[in-house]
Amino acid sequence: MTFQDTPGVRGLRERIRSMIHSELTPEFLRAFVSSDEWQRQATAFCKRLASERLLTFAWSQEYGGAGASKWEQTALREEFWASHEPRGAQYMGVNWVGPVIMHFGSDAQKHRHLSEIAAGEEVWCQGFSEPEVGSDLASLQLTATRQADGSFRASGQKIWTSYAALANWCFLATRTSRGSSKHQGITIFLVPMDRVGISVRPIDSIIGKNHLNEVFFDDVVLHKDEILGELDKGWDVIDVVLKHERVGIARYARSDKILADLWSSVQAASGPGSSELRAAHARELVHSRVARLLSYRTLVSTENGDMPTQPSVARIASTLLDQRVAEVAMEVVGADGVDSSEDAALGGWVEDAWRYARSSTIASGTTEIQRLLASRAMVDQV
Amino acid sequence: MERQWPDEALDFETGVRGALQRAGGVELARRAEAAPAVRASVVKPILDELGILDLDLSGGETEAAATALAMSAAGAFVCPWPLVQQLAVPRALRGEVDAVYLRDGAVRRAEHLDIAGRAAALDLVTREAQALRVLEAPALNGNHRAVSPMPLDPFGVRCELASESFDLAGLIGAHVVLAAFWTVGALGSARELATQHARDRHQFGRRIADFGAVQWHLSDIALAQEGLWELASFSLARLIDQTLTSADALALQYLMLDSAQKVFSHAHQVLAAIGLCDEHDLTVLERHVQPLLRRPCGITRTVGLLAEEVACSGFDNLYPIPAAVPV
């Protein structure tokens, strides 16, 4: 039993860290930012990664990847998340859209999308949540009605759609029929965002630009060959998407990096409260290590089919850690916590880190849903 | 990264769990509390038969894994024997010292000291170890009275430090790792009790597991217990590799205390009044694990020591905290 990186994985980490620091400006690395300039940096960075087969590192060589091992993929995810995900909006295409197309897609869909994602040319958004449908995803209402010529017409609304304004494709979940259960009658379409009838309205939020949008579908034509998987069996696809999503985000790596970045300030703290600050920092160092170990366990158990509580427990640990570490960071900089200017303590990045952490227990499945899944798995396990 | 436990170690754990279960499980601890001689007359022969007391944490990867897993299996029933303290001593030192206890300065009581053999107390801070001297007559033969009338220290024995000293500084990590495996075993039992109760107990026409508040408790139990299991396993691997640092050991000690506090408090809330009764296993598990948790010091003190150690020696995370530069 060993928990150490192999020399190959260690080398990969060094390579990625070096690439991040040579390709991206310090301003990019200080926060989860979304200005047009920083989006351009992310796009250029993705192309550099693509040129070295690192963008789709985990994919098989057949689809333009490098066939990386599970632990190499993990190291890559960790390094990117620790540096504020420099793949920007493209992480979704790489992490789960591509793999799900490999799983369910037709030859034409694979040919159309996989090479484009691997080249860093496609940005995807996820059309899942709706105004009345959040955690209860299977109750989605956006309707795609079959036409006489075999095509569909979609009308309705999606919401909280990250990167919708930047995306050129939407992974769209629609209601195509009413089955005996709400999980039946769902169909996934792969839809270009420039299709007539689709409009995007960005929503300003505490977590910054581009993260939240509304997407409106007004009698949008969807073609039969844009269906991913089978008609009315889209829940099977969503199930695989959610499994990829749960292990795709190495939030603990970001917390780990923040704790390291705080260290010199924590060490230098003096006077009343300084010992409590050091204690709070030390506690989170431990919980950061634990969150990482729980995530690693999930990676193994996903393959082995072990305890079903594991993905949810790992996710709860990482997301709660994210918010606690952001609070420690706020404590470290004190009154400068609300100041994002570069002359503020630690260059002002704490303000952004704290705002972004607010979404960690909500995005990609709320903590409450994870708790429900974990407890249900415990109770059902006899 | 290789996370697989050796098959031999897993088989050994199964054997330990089965033997202790057949001997009564947690009931054995209850019996020993009422009649301390049960430890020598019933528990010791079982441990001898299993061969646990011959295990050595420093005896290679498979033996170390077997030791840790056996500790977890014994902790699941709060087996009334000083297993953590005895197995923290490597085979080569046994005879000179039979058991090692952790201390933080002075020592007034130690659990199972009356049956531990030649025992030493190892200071968590100074790393100096001194012999422990029993101040009360051992209750080995007492069939009708507890060693201690104290519910949270049922096998505690009054003692003091003697002048004889030992070089045991390297055993802090072993003690902490074994204590963590013992504790995570006990927490696993508490988890099972809470889960089973949530599944079986019906209120307002539904099983209580269907209530959000109960689900919240259960998920917090899973988070705390599984997190401790992972960190204990990680720390064991470092102990085997001889890369476990003082900061690693303190990190595990802290998480052990934190996880135990969380698991037991959430389990009590799920079980409500029945969980408070001595006839229920939850309260026996919680009471009997307390001496290992409360000695040598509490969470605040442990975290303080951890913070000092991190400042001095660093902490090896994905993004490590560097060790202080020597002046």
Helix content of chain B: 40-55%
Give the oligomer, counting copies of the same chain as homo and different chains as hetero: heterodimer
Using only C-alpha atoms, the radius of gyration of chain A works out to: 21 Å
Average predicted local confidence, pLDDT of chain A? 90
Strand line-up of the largest beta sheet of chain B: 1-3-4-5-2
**CATH secondary-structure class of the largest domain in chain A:** Mainly Alpha
| Main pleated sheet of chain A | 4 strands, mixed
* Largest sheet: spatial strand order of chain A: 1-4-5-8
Query: What is the domain total for the residues of chain A?
Result: 3
- Name the CATH architecture of the largest domain in chain B: Up-down Bundle
* Whole-number mean pLDDT of chain B: 94
Head-to-tail CA distance between termini of chain A: 28 Å
Q: Report Rg of chain B.
A: 20 Å
CATH top-level class of the largest domain in chain B: Mainly Alpha
What can be said about the biggest beta sheet of chain B?
A: 5 strands, mixed
Using CB atoms under 8 Å apart, which protein chain pair has the greatest interface? A-B, 52 and 51 residues
Looking at the overall shape, the CATH architecture of the largest domain in chain A is Up-down Bundle
CATH topology of the largest domain in chain A: Butyryl-CoA Dehydrogenase, subunit A, domain 3
Structure report:
The complex is a heterodimer of chains A (382) and B (327). Chain A has 3 domains: 7-122, Butyryl-Coa Dehydrogenase, subunit A, domain 1 (Orthogonal Bundle), CATH 1.10.540.10; 125-237, Butyryl-CoA Dehydrogenase, subunit A, domain 2 (Beta Barrel), CATH 2.40.110; 249-380, Up-down Bundle (Butyryl-CoA Dehydrogenase, subunit A, domain 3), CATH 1.20.140.10. Helices cover 49% and strands 12% of the residues of chain A. Chain A is built from 12 helices and 8 strands. In chain A, the strands form 2 sheets. In chain A, strands 1-4-5-8 form a 4-stranded mixed beta sheet. Chain A is globular and about 75 Å long. The model of chain A has no long low-confidence stretch (mean pLDDT 90). In chain B, the strands form 2 sheets. Chain B has a 5-stranded mixed beta sheet with strand order 1-3-4-5-2. In chain B, strands 6-7 form a two-stranded antiparallel sheet. At the A-B interface, helix 4, helix 8, helix 9, helix 10 and helix 12 of A face helix 6, helix 7, helix 8 and helix 10 of B.
